From TrEMBL:
<feature type="transmembrane region" description="Helical">
    <location>
        <begin position="75"/>
        <end position="94"/>
    </location>
</feature>
<feature type="transmembrane region" description="Helical">
    <location>
        <begin position="38"/>
        <end position="55"/>
    </location>
</feature>
<keyword id="KW-1133">Transmembrane helix</keyword>
<dbReference type="GO" id="GO:0016020">
    <property type="term" value="C:membrane"/>
</dbReference>
<feature type="transmembrane region" description="Helical">
    <location>
        <begin position="6"/>
        <end position="26"/>
    </location>
</feature>
<feature type="transmembrane region" description="Helical">
    <location>
        <begin position="158"/>
        <end position="179"/>
    </location>
</feature>
<feature type="transmembrane region" description="Helical">
    <location>
        <begin position="101"/>
        <end position="120"/>
    </location>
</feature>
<feature type="domain" description="TLC">
    <location>
        <begin position="29"/>
        <end position="204"/>
    </location>
</feature>
<dbReference type="InterPro" id="IPR006634">
    <property type="entry name" value="TLC-dom"/>
</dbReference>
<protein>
    <submittedName>
        <fullName>TLC domain containing 5</fullName>
    </submittedName>
</protein>
<keyword id="KW-0812">Transmembrane</keyword>
<dbReference type="InterPro" id="IPR042512">
    <property type="entry name" value="TLCD5"/>
</dbReference>
<keyword id="KW-0472">Membrane</keyword>
<feature type="transmembrane region" description="Helical">
    <location>
        <begin position="191"/>
        <end position="212"/>
    </location>
</feature>
Amino acid sequence: MALALCLQVLCSLCGWLSLYISFCHLNKRRSYEWSCRLVTFTHGVLSIGLSAYIGFIDGPWPFTHPGSPNTPLQVHVLCLTLGYFIFDLGWCIYFQSEGALMLAHHTLSILGIIMALVLGESGTEVNAVLFGSELTNPLLQMRWFLRETGHYHSFTGDVVDFLFVALFTGVRIGVGARLLFCEMVSPTPKWFVKVGGVAMYAVSWCFMFSIWRFAWRKSIKKYHAWRNRRSEERQLKHNGHLKIH
């Protein structure tokens, strides 16, 4: 069983690495980070679909059955995601592209998935955490691509930012709190699994503070820009011309 899991993770790692190499060849004029973020975007979309199917259709429901035995589909998805996180963590360390908080997030994710695979249980809630964590990932990558291509300061950029902040707050913080509560009050999960859940939720709050600061600064900037436009419009309507300072 352990050998089979290791082979699945190894195949996943090789698959993500091969995809990255392919993107590098297809985007030779772009940076390595461009290709890595394409891999991240691909994993995000794929993991959202798979984890949503597991949580909402295949089951079991994570809010009522935390700590339940892993299903075969959960094992496959966790192995697929573990290979990705190993790839991405290695990439981030090699290129020194991320700070300590993101590295801590990736490390906790890897340890949490390994723990669920070794125990043969708690894949239900780990899969739910995967869904909540990856739900905002495509939006984060879209934001970076918009900035790189010079289209970030647009209506599309504003929509992406709004959806990212709203989903992160509502799902990772709001729904995440409910999931953590169900995990803590249930007698089934192991105590160290609960500790891991608390650690992941604490990391989400660290991200949340940073996101709220960004949203506040952007909102204030947008408000001042709107007031300036209104002032210029009133001045033009009143005098027939703009006052040049």
